[in-house]
User: Fold these one by one.
Assistant:
Number 1:
Amino acid sequence: MVSLIDTDVMIDLSRGNADAANCVDSLSDPAISIVTAQELIVGARDQRDLNAIDSLVSMYRVIHIDAAIGQRAYELLKLYAKSDGLRTFDSLFAATAMERNCILVSRNRKHFAMIEGLRFEAPPY
């Protein structure tokens, strides 16, 4: 099964966190959302960081947002934005995982715990 890696884990990986690297290495079929790639770019400080991010992103299958993911994210926001504080990017991660039958791997359990039907796994670090 595909494991969709959330941005928080990818940031840890990009910062050389050995536990994050071990976690990601243990996944049988890791992927990232295009939203994660975009969030990583926003955190770049200079061209060297941009090059490192491009290199990191190129190592993973990138899942792009399509109409089904966008619609699912919209429905999740209607259900959980006001009651549970679900935010736009998190709705896109959850929707991507649900539409592509992935397990979402994230340290942000509280951001996703309320979403029924979402397969979620917190990394062991």
Number 2:
Amino acid sequence: MAKVVKLNIKPDFNFVLIALVSSEPLYRIGWLINEHINIQLKEVEPINIIHSKRQINQEFQRFAFTNDTETYYLVNNKSENGVLIEEQKQVDFWLKIESLNQINSADLVKNIKSIKDINLAFIVDPSSLKSKQKLISFDSEFEDS
């Protein structure tokens, strides 16, 4: 009889997650963030998720930037077929920052809040979200072209 081994692997949610509310489109928010925090977000492959209950494909547009120590992802929270993080329906975009160095997230949020086209920006604890597993899909490979 074959022995069944179950692995209990917990994903690492060691990153900064910032919720953004704005009526601007994703490309404009990306451009504004590039200007204010001096990065170069570029459009990459969208995230495709199959909604488990409704059995539909959801596609969320995504921008990304990476350098030697940091990776930034800017993702739409809303698509034609639903919401990425369902318990945060009021959020329009997610900015996820993975860094090898310590980030002063309060200063970063303050800088983002200074952008006149962003109505609201706040830090979210990823582990507090019911849909936190979807945050891992931000990390799928992208080509920096």
Number 3:
Amino acid sequence: MIALQNRQASHSYFIEERYTAGIQLLGTEVKSLREGKASFNDAYCVIIEGEAWIKSLHIAPYTHGTANNHDPLRDRKLLLQKREINKIQSKLKEKGLTLIPLRIFFSDSQLVKVEIGLARGKKLADKRESLKRKEAEREIRRGLASN
């Protein structure tokens, strides 16, 4: 099962809540995702007129596509229930919260899903602290593996 992670998200944000959403894609986009050709650089989610959208998610053009290949940076609609969108929208009004994509994966029924998260930005000191914690955990794992 292919899953594409937004590794930068855990470094730059505290993830407070996670949601799973479907995503409206074209056929060549799905084929490109199966090859693992997506980039989360600068990707974010917005709610416009009661609909959730993902912006700046780069899905590379399909290598075997024709002239009708998709635009790599087009806005894509996220498929969420109205009550989830309303809940997210009310929380986004809080200061400092943003909605970011965390990972893209294929469900058991081979549908493309996006895990999105309500996130609060980390300060520089918080980033340093999380790096220290990860390094300490890595050292502990190395010590256990060598025994």
